[in-house]
Amino acid sequence: MPSPYLPNTDADRSTMLSEIGVSSSDELFKDVPKEFRNAQFKLPPPLSELELKEELRQLSNLNANLDDYSCFLGAGFYRHFIPSVIGHITGRSEFYTAYTPYQAEASQGTLQTIYDYQSLICQLTRMEVSNAGMYDGSTAAAEAALMACRITRRDKVAVLSTVNPRYYQVIDTYARGHDIPLDKVEPDSVNLPPDYACLIVQQPNFFGYFEAIKSYVQKAHEVGTLLIVIVDPISLGIFKPPGDYGADIVVAEGQSLGNPISFGGPGLGIFTCRKEYLRQMPGRIVGKAVDVDGQTGYVLTLSTREQHIRREQATSNICTNEALVTLAVTVYLTTLGKNGLRRVAELCYHQAHYAADVIGKLKGYSLTFQQPFFKEFVVRCPVAPSQINQALFNENIIGGLEVSHLIDNGMLFCITEVNTKQEIDRLVKILEGLANGA
Amino acid sequence: MEHKSLPSISQPDKIGCSLPPLEVPPSKLPPKELLRQELGLPEVSEGELVRYFTSLSKFNYGVDTGFYPLGSCTMKYNPKWHEEVAKLPGFTSVHPYQPIDSVQGALRLMSELQELLTEITGMAATSLAPMAGSQGELANILMVKAYHQSRGDKIRQKILLPDSAHGTNPATSAMCGFKAVTIPSNDKGNLDIKSLKSMMNEEVAALALTIPTTLALFDPQIAEISQLVHERGGLLFGDGANLNSLLGRVKFGDLGFDCVQLNLHKTFSTPHGGGGPGSGPVCVKPILTDFLPSPSVTKNRGKYIFTSSTKTIGSLGAAYGNFGVMIKAYAYIRSLGAEGLKEVSENAVINANYLKEKLKAYYYLPYDRTCLHEVVFSGKRQKAKGIRTLDIAKRLLDYGFHPPTIYFPLVVEEAIMIEPTETESKETLDAFIDAMKKIAKEAEENPEILHTAPHNTPIRRLDEATAARKLDLRW
User: With bands split at pLDDT 50, 70 and 90, how would you rate the model's confidence at B144?
Assistant: First the structure.
């Protein structure tokens, strides 16, 4: 059977080969030395759409999908409500089968939505400029650190110890390229010597609570160090945006804004900064322009920062990023709008506080931190968190993230607007039973 | 026709979705200093916002719209059913940190994809962690660096690359602390061996090579190049952007490469998304497996687990790479098999050579030899008449085609880089050839119509220079 993806018939091919002036397609590979030309490939035999769809459906069923479970797991990837309109827009193939909008006249859809995205992200974070996105939140943080080194011409980076450990690891990988030392600093003892390019803080932090951010801004700026803040974008529905407290570069994971978790990818690295640092920013940027008839349109701009123009002098090697996720975020923020995002943030806040309150009162359980928090909190459990998670899983519940390597018997719970009161009450009941059994 | 703006359709007290009421007793809000004052997001009803984005989509051109011969980007057709399977809840609604026993389907798919790509490239192991080709390059060059350092070899500070290399190659080298040094190509478009011999010394960590080259030419000296690099202690790093031309025929491993990075969104038919998400797996030889990014998927006593190599370069993201993209590439490879992959490269190469033969009388062909999956012309004949390649590209829009890649590779003056891919029919190619011929004629007879192109797009040629000077980056 012919392949559905190859439109040319044998007759077409033979006409084309004769136009080319060769007798067989093998001749077209004559520059490949003979010994390399006919490699053998041990691959499984091809399957039809019908067969493979069934196989993949069965494979997907081997995963516990969160639609069938109650889930209290977050730690950087979050389950939030995804309005159906998003999938319908991102599913338009004019968007998803296009590529980087190099030809502006044929790409105004992508370009204008990126311009909208940059605007929405600036509104949300109250930062001055945004790029079109990085791979994920952690690589955005890593690129922010490298950018801070370029701006300050310093080559040491400080990361607050309450930053997501996975983000720390990725920053470390990127820092290795330039042999930049990475120092983990403790919140209580932040006393910055004047040789750090930046201090990286997460707000709210990995454990869910809010840092006393003002003191970090002050301490960093006193010694010419830039403050990089990693935020939870949903929290900005009600909490103070980083642009209002003096952050220099702000990054975030954008997955929670209208995208499924997808086993951790694709996500989106939100990346914003103060205007004065714009020319050191990595990634694509879209700007407004005027065409020959005086009409408004949009173009990729400031490309002289980028690899295809500046090569080894570029601000980053990034080119393809996560454009379709950027579109999803744009549609999400438009759909929820001012009142919707605030509402989602409020639901998260109140439901998480309700859960923390009841769990904290259970015999044997206690809340580790007393600081204000948003939707995540650490609970010290009476038994090993792994044991609790196993028991919860048996009840169709995905429990929190075990953090016992950081906090004795600690578990990081996450509650969002998709967790119903009924679910929370059920979780509490099971936790109570487990304590009694301990 | 200028498109309306998002703020212009926003009005107070509108919303695009409904949300549930609060079921729990409200808690006290934290101190005011932690709270925000105002939130400047738009307010639009559902129907209005759907119309806004739908009408914007019509201002876009994708592979589904028509021929998209963007060289180096492999804009092939993206099978629809891949989108459907990638959206199965068992794939999308899965958390990266949930218990390993509850994600065995995802791990099995990743493990099998690792094996498939290892076999396709003829390497020893694969990591799926990089989220795009450029991040795959970063992983490869970091591995090169770690490899030399692990041997106590610290004087290798240079990465050699041909003058036809992608811009990401030098940019990545710089990100990894290396100095990028350019090697010239010879008049046939191959690497100049004499220069390589004189430049390849103990200061060179690796040679970065795209094969076939960005001129879509297969460098027949590959075995000699590999030998030269290796005997002087360097590694051979492959940019796999052009794998579409070698699928099912040639293995990178056989050619002497120590590491390559692939682009699943190019070669393996996952949609380009308007600029991502992509996926850029790296495949390596045994000498580099200890350095692979973390984590890899392995099978242990019938169970799939995540493992980390002993001398790993570290993590590249907060999870395991762009899983959603991997599913589609997996489906593509499994639906084609070895023979199907071979047909892909065969048809891609026939299509490119057909375009070359049909157009070379009209556009200057700097390297008149058999090409592989794409063909690079120069607009220098037209330039002599005051027409730039940019004008030709813009005029193609009037004929309903997405323009090819232009001004790359840099070694070709006024470059026009056309990659038809295997999923285009002779009929489409003939229509494109016809348009290109007409444009060549217009360049002779009516150059003004090219200078002022495009004429039929909703927005016409935009003033990029002013846009970069008077920056307007948000509303």
Answer: very high
Instruction: Grade residue A340 by pLDDT with cuts at 50, 70 and 90.
Output: very high
Give me the pLDDT at residue A190, please: 66
Q: Residue B305 to residues A166, B102, B105, B299, B312: CA-CA distances in angstroms? A: 18, 11, 11, 6, 17
- Mind telling me how many Å the CA of B18 is from chain A's nearest CA? 8
As for the ipTM of the complex, it is: 0.98
What's the half-sphere exposure (Cβ side, CA atoms, 13 Å) at A260? 20
pLDDT above 70 coverage of chain A, percent? 99
Instruction: Please report the residues numbered 370 through 429 in chain B whose beta carbons come closer than 8 angstroms to any beta carbon of chain A.
Output: 370, 372, 393-394, 397, 402-403, 405, 408, 422-428
A66-81+337-437 belongs to CATH 3.90.1150.10: yes
Q: Answer yes or no: do B102 and A301 touch at CB < 8 A.
A: no
B234 and B355 inside one domain: no
Q: Does B450 fall in a domain?
A: yes
One domain for residues B199 and B238: yes
Which of B17, B123, B145 to probe the A interface (max A CBs under 10 A)?
B17
Over the stretch A151-202, which tens digit does the pLDDT of each residue have? 999 999 999 999 999 999 999 999 999 899 999 998 876 678 899 999 999 9
Q: Is residue B257 part of a domain?
A: yes
- Give dist(CA B247, CA A160) in Å, integer: 47
Tally of structural domains, chain B: 2
Q: From CA A6, how far away is CA B141, in angstroms rounded?
A: 36
Residue A438: pLDDT band by 50, 70, 90 thresholds? Answer: low
Residue range(s) defining the domain that contains residue B354: 345-459
Q: Shortest CB distance from B218 goes to which of A31, A260, A266?
A: A31
| Chain B residue with Cα closest to A44 | B337
CATH architecture observed for domain A84-332? 3-Layer(aba) Sandwich (3.40)
Domain boundaries, chain A: 66-81+337-437, 84-332
Q: Output the pLDDT for position A309.
A: 84
Helices (H) and strands (E) in chain B, counts: 15, 12
Closest chain B residue by Cα to residue A419: B23
Cβ of A83 and B96 within 8 Å? no
**Strand order, beta sheet including B375-378:** B375-378, B415-418, B405-406
For residue B455, tell me if it sits in a domain: yes
Contact A43 B104 (CB under 8 A): no
Q: Clarify whether residues B269 and B371 are in a common domain.
A: no
**Nearest CA among A265, A410, A232, A296 for reference residue B278:** A265
